[in-house]
Amino acid sequence: MRIIHTSDWHLGNAMFDIDRTEEIKSFFVWLRQQIVEREADALVIAGDIFDNRIPSNEMKTLYYRFLASLLDTGCRNIFVAGGNHDSGALLDATGELAEALNIHVAGTIADRSVEDLIYEITDKSGECSAICALIPFIREADLRRFYDGKWEERTFSDHAYGELYRQVLEAVDKKKAGRKLPVIVTGHLYAAALEGRYGDVEDDEKEMEADDGVLSIDVRGNLGKVHADVFPGDFTYVALGHIHYTSMVAGENRIRYSGSPFVMGFDETDIPRYVLQVDLEESTDGFSPVVEKLRVPGKDRFVRVCGSVDEIRERLLALKAEVQAADGNSVYAGNEVQAADGNSVYVEIVYRQEDRALLENVIDQAELPERLQIVHWKKMKTARAANSFEDLRMEDVREIRLEDVVRCLVQEYYPPEVGISEEEAETKVNALVEEFLPYFREAENKVRVQGGDGDEDN
């Protein structure tokens, strides 16, 4: 039995207003080709199909057309789990039509019983050769029905998810009815003890530095880190989504994130993209997964350029030369895919605040080709950035003064003019804060009235 595991497509993600439609189409063509050539029996998508709960018609069309394109392949089983960015109702709306096409969707756990989430996977002969437990992202209100009320040096997530997956195992055993079958289980959650990008980080602070769209609120509080032992050893392979880079959990080959096939932020441009091919092989002890990473050939290239004016100028001119010399073929270069003729190179400039005006002149003089686009400017962090709240823990959020939030926004979007003194800059900031603060207070009051003051769920 061979499956392809992918997740976190985030269809509709614009990343600084970049049109990513062609990039998505290119990925879908490549993914279908892998499924056909590798004769995959099943495709498992572990959540965050869309970037937001109300995707555009164009993104929905791309999604449905891709699923439809698999119907004439040898892939007989398609499993789609909802993520925290998805509308569970939207995904579930395909209902019986999707089931008739052997496309199984669990956008949300909602009113489903655990038994409703267990499916048989059939092979090319139509025989059941594996079981899939399709578990979507579960919001805290729904997860509480699995919480046993205990704590005992374990997190809420460990207790609740532990009970959920214990019930899943019971339902799987009933479905197996004594048959010896491998078991695939999905999840869309934030696990502890990851390898790779933050593998040596024990707390959640590092995650807050990412540009990849993983909201810190998704991984904190009661829905935070789930430990590997909540997944019973009888599960052959646990296909996870939510983390955007490929990773194992607690060093266990059977518990993995596929990561996103797309770059989600300029902080991760040097991270290769994969989908995972998983072969479920039988042994004397049962079944074990053999995992192969399939490198996704990115259509476009994303580059972060930082440093002094001279360093940025030199790097931009080098990129310009690369683009002009491109021969029309995408080729791997380390962890990067060099832009082919006609493809785009998107650049983020990370600059010192005092260099902004000079850099704009440098870029004008460089006469960059059209497909080498600067899409974002980002100031280097300085001591003044202490008001940015980036290192603030979630339990402290309620202590933030609205005035400080407004001041932070003013400093971000209204940088001081070149040449003015620090006192003049501070006077300008204070004036803007005084100007904008009433509007923010009005918005705050509306939220309190509509959401209910003091209601932690709002």
Shape verdict: globular
Q: Number of DSSP strands?
A: 17
Strand content: 15-25%
Highest-level CATH class of the largest domain: Alpha Beta
Determine the fraction of residues in helical runs and give it as a percent range. Answer: 25-40%
Helix and strand element order: EHEHEHHEEEHHEEEEEEEHEEEHEHH
CATH architecture annotation of the largest domain: 4-Layer Sandwich
Contiguous low-pLDDT stretches (5 residues minimum) are 200-222, 327-341, 452-458
Arrangement of strands in the largest sheet: 4-3-2-1-11-12
Blueprint (SSEs and pairs):
Elements: E1 2-6, H1 21-37, E2 42-46, H2 57-69, E3 77-81, H3 88-92, H4 95-100, E4 103-106, E5 118-122, E6 128-133, H5 140-143, H6 156-176, E7 183-188, E8 237-241, E9 247-249, E10 252-257, E11 274-283, E12 286-295, E13 301-306, H7 309-325, E14 332-333, E15 336-337, E16 345-351, H8 356-366, E17 372-379, H9 402-413, H10 422-451
Parallel strand pairs: 1-2, 2-3, 3-4, 6-7, 7-8, 8-10, 13-16, 16-17
Antiparallel strand pairs: 1-11, 5-6, 9-10, 11-12, 14-15
Helix pairs in contact: 1-2, 7-8, 9-10
